[in-house]
Design a protein that fits this description.
Blueprint lengths: L2 H18 L12 H13 L5 H8 L3 H13 L3 E5 L7 E5 L5 H8 L3 H8 L4 H17 L4 H5 L4
Length: 152
């Protein structure tokens, strides 16, 4: 496997993951699931951050980050507060509790989406692929990125 093949595999897995995230009851969305996840992961990695800081780290436009923060706030995944040191800034942090939406996403299964992507409903084949993906996920957690890009 070369770098391009690995990149394409990553894109495929990302799309399967996006499709597997439940969207019922979310309402009209002006932001992509991918953008929301990028912002959410950034907020979780950098508590008490600002929209501008997230935009710089993620490469997303500030308007997109603002829309994602609003969406995450509506679902109870993040909270915002005025910066006590600079009242012009709003700080974003992970919500201390688990929102219903976060619990729903965490409890959702990728089985149906993976079955569709693979073009099979064979339980043995699905179990094999899920096992391989779980083994890969254990070895390549999001923390691995810090070893690849120390400034991330």
């Amino acid at each position: 496997m070369n770098g391009v093949q690995l990149f394409l595999l990553g894109r495929t897995l990302m799309k399967i993951g996006e499709e597997a995230i439940p969207t019922g009851g979310v309402g009209k969305r002006t932001t992509s699931t991918r953008s929301v996840l990028i912002v959410m992961l950034d907020v979780y990695a950098h508590p008490d951050t600002t929209v501008g800081e997230i935009a710089v780290r993620s490469g997303l436009p500030q308007s997109a980050v603002s829309a994602c923060v609003a969406r995450l706030r509506e679902t109870g995944s993040v909270v915002t507060a005025t910066d006590p040191h600079d009242r012009r800034r709003t700080l974003v942090r992970r919500s201390p509790g688990t929102s219903d939406r976060r619990a729903e996403v965490a409890a959702s299964s990728v089985d149906g989406t993976l079955s569709t992507a693979l073009g099979t409903s064979d339980p043995a084949e699905l179990a094999e692929v899920l096992g391989l993906l779980e083994a890969l996920a254990e070895r390549l957690s999001p923390e691995v990125l810090a070893r690849l890009t120390p400034d991330a």
